[in-house]
Here is the input.
Amino acid sequence: MISCTLTDGVQIATVQASRIDAEVAIEFKDKMRDETSDGPERIILDLSQVEFVDSSGLGAIVAAMKQLGVGRKLDLCGLTQSVDNVFRLTRMDTVFRLYPSIDTALAAPAA
Amino acid sequence: MHALRCDDRGNAPPDTRRVSFKATTADAREQVCDIRDMLGFLGVDAQSLSSIELVLAEVINNVVEHAYAGDTAGTIDLNCELDQTHLHIHLRDQGKPFPSLELPDGQRPDVDCALYDLPEGGFGWFLIRKLTTSVTYQRVGDTNALHLLFDLPLQAAPPQSDVPAQTCLDR
Here is the structure.
């Protein structure tokens, strides 16, 4: 469901499922915990393959961010239109940094 | 599936679809996708489809998780009625009623707080209320009956919330 690579000291976690919804929210959280329990300060979650996120999925992404612990950051990239809408409606776009692509996310200056 | 047909006076009867399915997250996902595809085929615009899909997922998940509290033997009945300007969705289940027989008011959870205080839940009813024209509930005997109305095409939901936010416990 999630594959990870390391680029320039940043962990890129690519979600390979098209939906983060009630059916897979727990699996997503667990996999994110496994992939990010150790590792760089900055993780970029690539959502470019994700077409649908509901409130369960949103909660799972928030949980994944909290799981990182103090001093580590979860940024998001590649949000599709409908996923972007969910983040904006809930104001979660004020909580996470959202980038159009991996390249723009990597090019952004450190917080 | 068939497109809307007009009678001699140019009036199209509504397209309807009725389904019954088990209260599992897998069935929920399948039905949400099927209904979205059907509505798309019948000509509902992409932006409305996106909102409808999200609301359907939220209300059905709510039945699975709360009304049936994970009892996957429960049955959910869904009836969709689409005409030129409205989509009606009727959802019925035999699960637990809403507390006080009332729908949650769906205030937007406050996210302007410390990261570790961020809510992970509570967004569902905010999204449902935001993206529907109306949502109403009745308890009839041992049945929950939810009615969702969408005026089509749906207005684009503005990014600014006009619902006051609940406050977080701590900042």
